[in-house]
Fold:
Amino acid sequence: MEPQLRLNQVATVLVNDATTISITPWEKNLLKEVEHSIGSANIGVNPNNDGECVKLFFPPMTTDQRKEGAKQAKVMGDKSKIAIRNIRKDANDKVKKLEKDKEITEDEAKKAYDKVQKNTDDGVKQIDDAVKEKETEILKI
Structure:
Protein backbone atom coordinates (compact mmCIF):
# COMPACT_ATOMS: atom_id res chain seq x y z
CA MET A 1 0.00 0.00 0.00
CA GLU A 2 1.37 3.40 -0.99
CA PRO A 3 1.62 6.13 1.63
CA GLN A 4 -1.35 8.48 1.71
CA LEU A 5 -0.69 12.11 0.90
CA ARG A 6 -2.84 15.16 1.36
CA LEU A 7 -4.50 16.42 -1.79
CA ASN A 8 -2.67 19.74 -1.65
CA GLN A 9 0.65 17.83 -1.67
CA VAL A 10 -0.03 16.28 -5.10
CA ALA A 11 -2.30 18.76 -6.86
CA THR A 12 -3.42 22.33 -7.26
CA VAL A 13 -6.85 22.89 -5.72
CA LEU A 14 -8.79 25.90 -7.00
CA VAL A 15 -12.22 27.21 -6.07
CA ASN A 16 -13.64 28.39 -9.40
CA ASP A 17 -16.89 29.76 -7.99
CA ALA A 18 -19.32 29.15 -5.14
CA THR A 19 -20.24 25.69 -6.45
CA THR A 20 -17.16 24.40 -8.32
CA ILE A 21 -13.75 23.11 -7.20
CA SER A 22 -11.04 22.10 -9.69
CA ILE A 23 -8.23 19.74 -8.73
CA THR A 24 -5.28 19.51 -11.13
CA PRO A 25 -2.70 16.86 -10.19
CA TRP A 26 0.92 17.81 -10.83
CA GLU A 27 1.45 14.41 -12.40
CA LYS A 28 -1.19 13.23 -14.91
CA ASN A 29 -0.87 9.59 -13.77
CA LEU A 30 -2.43 10.64 -10.44
CA LEU A 31 -5.65 11.88 -12.08
CA LYS A 32 -7.51 8.54 -11.79
CA GLU A 33 -6.31 8.02 -8.22
CA VAL A 34 -7.46 11.51 -7.18
CA GLU A 35 -10.83 10.89 -8.82
CA HIS A 36 -11.20 7.51 -7.11
CA SER A 37 -10.16 8.87 -3.69
CA ILE A 38 -12.66 11.73 -3.86
CA GLY A 39 -15.39 9.36 -5.03
CA SER A 40 -14.75 6.96 -2.15
CA ALA A 41 -14.64 9.84 0.38
CA ASN A 42 -18.44 10.08 0.08
CA ILE A 43 -18.63 13.89 0.35
CA GLY A 44 -21.93 14.15 -1.49
CA VAL A 45 -20.65 14.99 -4.99
CA ASN A 46 -19.36 12.89 -7.86
CA PRO A 47 -15.95 13.84 -9.27
CA ASN A 48 -15.82 14.66 -13.00
CA ASN A 49 -12.55 13.81 -14.77
CA ASP A 50 -12.01 15.79 -17.97
CA GLY A 51 -8.57 14.35 -18.70
CA GLU A 52 -6.77 17.41 -17.32
CA CYS A 53 -8.34 17.90 -13.92
CA VAL A 54 -11.04 16.61 -11.59
CA LYS A 55 -13.97 18.96 -11.08
CA LEU A 56 -16.43 18.86 -8.23
CA PHE A 57 -19.81 20.49 -8.78
CA PHE A 58 -21.67 21.22 -5.55
CA PRO A 59 -25.40 21.99 -5.61
CA PRO A 60 -26.41 25.48 -4.49
CA MET A 61 -27.13 25.81 -0.79
CA THR A 62 -30.73 25.54 0.34
CA THR A 63 -32.35 28.29 2.38
CA ASP A 64 -32.07 26.14 5.50
CA GLN A 65 -28.36 25.51 4.86
CA ARG A 66 -27.81 29.25 4.41
CA LYS A 67 -29.62 30.02 7.68
CA GLU A 68 -27.55 27.36 9.47
CA GLY A 69 -24.32 28.80 8.01
CA ALA A 70 -25.29 32.30 9.16
CA LYS A 71 -26.05 30.92 12.63
CA GLN A 72 -22.63 29.22 12.74
CA ALA A 73 -20.94 32.50 11.75
CA LYS A 74 -22.70 34.21 14.68
CA VAL A 75 -21.59 31.47 17.10
CA MET A 76 -17.99 31.79 15.88
CA GLY A 77 -18.19 35.56 16.35
CA ASP A 78 -19.49 35.12 19.90
CA LYS A 79 -16.64 32.74 20.73
CA SER A 80 -14.15 35.26 19.33
CA LYS A 81 -15.61 38.04 21.46
CA ILE A 82 -15.32 35.84 24.56
CA ALA A 83 -11.64 35.25 23.70
CA ILE A 84 -11.07 39.00 23.38
CA ARG A 85 -12.72 39.62 26.74
CA ASN A 86 -10.53 36.96 28.34
CA ILE A 87 -7.47 38.72 26.92
CA ARG A 88 -8.79 42.00 28.38
CA LYS A 89 -9.13 40.36 31.80
CA ASP A 90 -5.54 39.03 31.62
CA ALA A 91 -4.22 42.44 30.56
CA ASN A 92 -6.11 44.22 33.34
CA ASP A 93 -4.80 41.70 35.89
CA LYS A 94 -1.24 42.42 34.74
CA VAL A 95 -1.81 46.17 35.02
CA LYS A 96 -3.27 45.68 38.51
CA LYS A 97 -0.20 43.66 39.54
CA LEU A 98 2.18 46.31 38.18
CA GLU A 99 0.29 49.01 40.09
CA LYS A 100 0.26 46.91 43.28
CA ASP A 101 4.01 46.28 42.97
CA LYS A 102 4.51 50.06 42.55
CA GLU A 103 6.07 49.56 39.10
CA ILE A 104 3.58 52.00 37.57
CA THR A 105 1.65 54.94 38.97
CA GLU A 106 -2.10 55.16 39.44
CA ASP A 107 -2.33 57.52 36.43
CA GLU A 108 -0.35 55.09 34.24
CA ALA A 109 -2.61 52.27 35.37
CA LYS A 110 -5.71 54.31 34.46
CA LYS A 111 -4.27 55.00 30.99
CA ALA A 112 -3.44 51.32 30.57
CA TYR A 113 -6.97 50.25 31.59
CA ASP A 114 -8.43 52.77 29.13
CA LYS A 115 -6.17 51.53 26.32
CA VAL A 116 -7.03 47.89 27.04
CA GLN A 117 -10.75 48.76 26.97
CA LYS A 118 -10.38 50.71 23.71
CA ASN A 119 -8.56 47.78 22.08
CA THR A 120 -11.26 45.42 23.37
CA ASP A 121 -14.04 47.62 21.97
CA ASP A 122 -12.24 47.88 18.61
CA GLY A 123 -11.79 44.11 18.43
CA VAL A 124 -15.44 43.44 19.31
CA LYS A 125 -16.58 45.94 16.67
CA GLN A 126 -14.36 44.29 14.02
CA ILE A 127 -15.87 40.91 14.89
CA ASP A 128 -19.43 42.28 14.79
CA ASP A 129 -18.76 43.88 11.40
CA ALA A 130 -17.20 40.70 10.00
CA VAL A 131 -20.07 38.53 11.25
CA LYS A 132 -22.66 40.92 9.81
CA GLU A 133 -20.86 40.96 6.46
CA LYS A 134 -20.53 37.15 6.42
CA GLU A 135 -24.21 36.67 7.36
CA THR A 136 -25.24 38.96 4.49
CA GLU A 137 -22.93 37.09 2.11
CA ILE A 138 -24.21 33.66 3.20
CA LEU A 139 -27.91 34.61 3.08
CA LYS A 140 -27.58 36.30 -0.35
CA ILE A 141 -28.98 34.08 -3.10
Notes: Residues 63-100 form the longest helix (38 residues). The helical segments are 31-40, 63-100, 106-139. The mean pLDDT is 92.
